[in-house]
Amino acid sequence: QAQLVESGGGLVQPGGSLRLSCAASFTDFSTYIMRWYRQAPGKQREVVALITTNNITDYAGSVKGRFTISRDNAKNTVDLQMNNLKPGDTAVYYCNAFQASTGEGSWGQGTQVTVSS
Does position 101 have pLDDT exceeding 70, yes or no? Predict the structure, then answer.
């Protein structure tokens, strides 16, 4: 099963920036659709951003214009650049991989992002 490891979370003040990174351990990384999800306390997990195998991106309305997802197939990584962070962005952020041809998917363990003054 594919393995994913997130990094880059932490505490940041409102208006600040963080860059999350997700490293994948599987060799056919380029064939996976990659997503970042987040889950705040007491709330359901929600998708934040996705990037397809053709580098098409999409974002949740709440983060559009502030977050940018990117992937590096040579390094098997997907990043999430988060700018102008707000307290409402506080959550555990998870990386997800999904391979449409096989239905195989995987989750990372999550990384905490806290936006507070």
Answer: yes
Nearest to residue 23, comparing CAs of 68, 71, 67? Answer: 71
**Closest alpha carbon to 90 in 4, 10, 5:** 10
> What proportions of the chain, in percent to the nearest 5, are helix, strand and coil?
5, 50, 45
Residues forming beta bridges with residue 94, ordered by sequence position: 37
| Per-residue pLDDT reduced to its tens digit, 22-59 | 999 988 999 999 999 999 999 999 999 999 999 999 99
**81 to each of 1, 64, 104, how far by Cα in Å?**
27, 12, 26
82 Cβ neighbours under 8 A, 6+ residues apart: 17, 18, 19, 20, 63, 66, 67, 89, 113
Structure tokens at 50: 């996705």
In eight-state DSSP terms, residue 77 is E
CA-CA distance, 2 to 106, in Å (whole number)? 6
